[in-house]
Write a structure and sequence with these properties.
This protein is 32% helix and 25% strand. It is of the alpha+beta class. It has 3 domains: 4-78, Thrombin, subunit H (Beta Barrel); 83-361, Rossmann fold; 372-462, no CATH class. The longest helix is centred in the last third of the chain and has 25 residues, at 372-396. It is built from 12 helices and 23 strands. The radius of gyration is 25 Å and the shape is elongated. The strands form 4 sheets. Strands 9, 11, 14, 17, 18, 19, 20, 21, 22 and 23 form a 10-stranded mixed β-sheet that branches. It has a 7-stranded antiparallel β-sheet with strand order 1-7-4-5-6-3-2, with no helix packed on it. Helix 10 (403-420) runs antiparallel to helix 11 (428-439). The N and C termini lie far apart (74 Å).
Length: 470
């Protein structure tokens, strides 16, 4: 459809990132718009709302310098699209898909809508196969499965940025039967990040060698709030193309979705919408679902799309609407602990509230190791018992504990210092060996999650009927 142009006197009001225009044409929601200033420079926008008299346009680029009397608005007649092609990997883009690494433009093979195309649920395949992230508390205890969406719940000041780039550098698909690993294509999306953080992402991926197999999308804190609403959509459009058009296994790391939700609240308030919980719009659940549900596996496609979104919980409140709604949509969560971070444990993953609902579909015989699920279950039970012993010790003192509880108290500390804490990436085999080492010395009566064959094969004489935790 050819572009349609409004005359300059149609602009009514400019309120922050929102431009209100007199409705003189038949336009549609989410239609792409070019707002042309007095110097002829076009700025991207989209139709956010409309009624019989006015059209509300979200400005996706800065609105500074626009004047109502000399602004021309061009309605493009189509939704916002992203030109994709084989040259996406190894490139750096801004929040609206424009190349910012100094290289040539992308050779466009096709243009795709950034809001994604609807996917028939029948076409979805069950996520399978284990992804090795290099982090023991994830790989061993809360495994990430290819095609899953598994968010990281963090907090302000916690090292989620460092964890994100380390996972991007190490993530690989483990093919246990063949003893081989297959690296992922990475789509890394930073939303509302400071310039120093954006530079950290870029340099870290370059130094690890992961940038050549990555597409990096960076929306800076200085960019408009409306642009943050489009940045993850541009990134996930690239990820969908790489996965379902080029047949690659793609890992999309999106950080920080809290900035996305804050922008959603800001824009909703500017449009005069009725607020919901804590001022966020009532449709935030369905809006987040339009991002999370773009992950998955599709029948007939060789590629898959796995999501690892990261969000910071305001005031470390896991019941806040952002993590709360995310937990309903996604398949689990990895929770970071401020207490472990203060204790010098890295990565500070709190294993007990963490969960991977699809772990059973990507671990065990044929994927990782036949004894992997039982080992993870036994370690979880032992660490939970250690946490109970800590609580009891805070009341009666360590001297008042039984010998068995004191052993579990020591095991809990060892679990955090030897398994959760790590100085570098670990393979799953090394993580499992660290787990077996922690269980050595426990009495057999405490190993209810393991079979006799597993105890004999991995623990042997180190476990006795009369033993107590070391």
């Amino acid at each position: 459809m050819p572009p349609r142009v409004t005359v300059h006197d149609a602009a009514l009001k400019l309120d922050g990132p929102l431009l209100f225009v007199r409705r003189t044409l038949d336009v549609g929601l989410n239609e792409a718009v070019e707002v042309i200033d007095r110097n002829g420079h076009p700025r991207l926008g989209r139709v956010a709302a409309l009624d019989e008299e006015a059209v509300t346009i979200e400005m996706l680029e800065p609105s500074a310098g626009l004047g109502l009397a000399d602004t021309v608005v061009r309605f493009l007649g189509t939704p916002i699209e992203f030109g994709v092609g084989p040259g996406l990997l190894g490139r750096v883009f801004n929040g609206v898909g424009q190349v910012i690494d100094g290289g040539p433009p992308i050779a466009v093979k096709k243009r795709l809508r950034v809001d994604g195309l609807p996917l028939n649920p029948v076409a979805r395949a069950t996520p399978r196969a284990f992804i090795e992230t290099g982090i023991s508390s994830v790989d061993l205890m809360n495994s990430l499965v290819r095609g899953q969406k598994l968010p990281i719940f963090s907090g302000g000041g916690l090292p989620h940025d460092r964890i994100a780039v380390e996972i991007a550098g190490h993530a690989r698909l483990l093919t246990h039967a063949a003893g081989e690993h297959e690296e992922f294509a990475i789509v890394f999306c930073g939303i509302g990040v400071p310039y120093t953080t954006a530079d950290f992402f870029r340099r870290s991926l370059e130094q690890s060698g992961a940038l050549e197999r990555s597409a990096l999308f960076l929306n800076l804190a200085s960019d408009s709030s409306t642009q943050r609403l489009l940045t993850p959509r541009f990134a996930l459009t690239a990820a969908e193309y790489l996965a379902f058009e080029e047949g690659k296994h793609v890992l999309a790391i999106v950080t920080d979705l809290t900035n996305y939700c804050e922008a959603l609240r800001e824009v909703a308030g500017a449009k005069g919408e009725v607020p919901g919980r804590k001022g966020f719009p009532g449709y935030m659940y369905s809006d987040l679902a339009t991002l999370y549900e773009r992950a998955g596996c599709v029948h007939g496609s060789a590629g898959t799309l796995t999501q690892l979104p990261i969000l910071t919980m305001p005031n470390d409140d896991i019941g806040h609407p952002i993590p709360d709604l995310s937990g309903y949509i996604t398949e689990g969560q990895i929770v970071l602990s401020r207490e472990l971070d203060r204790a010098g444990v890295y990565p500070p993953v709190n294993v007990l509230p963490s969960l991977s609902r699809l772990m059973k579909d990507g671990t065990g015989a044929g994927y990782t190791h036949a004894d992997h699920p039982a080992l993870a279950s036994q370690l979880y039970a032992a660490y939970a018992r250690a946490t109970q012993a800590r609580l009891l010790a805070s009341v009666v003192g360590e001297e008042g504990l039984s010998e068995n509880d004191r052993g579990y108290l020591a095991l809990g500390t060892a679990f955090e210092r030897q398994l959760v804490n790590q100085s570098g990436a670990r393979t799953l085999a090394h993580s499992m060996e660290a787990g077996w080492q922690l269980l050595r010395g426990l009495p057999r009566s405490e190993l209810a999650r393991l079979s006799d064959a597993q105890i004999e094969a991995h623990l042997g004489a180190a476990t006795r009927a009369d033993a107590v935790p070391a």
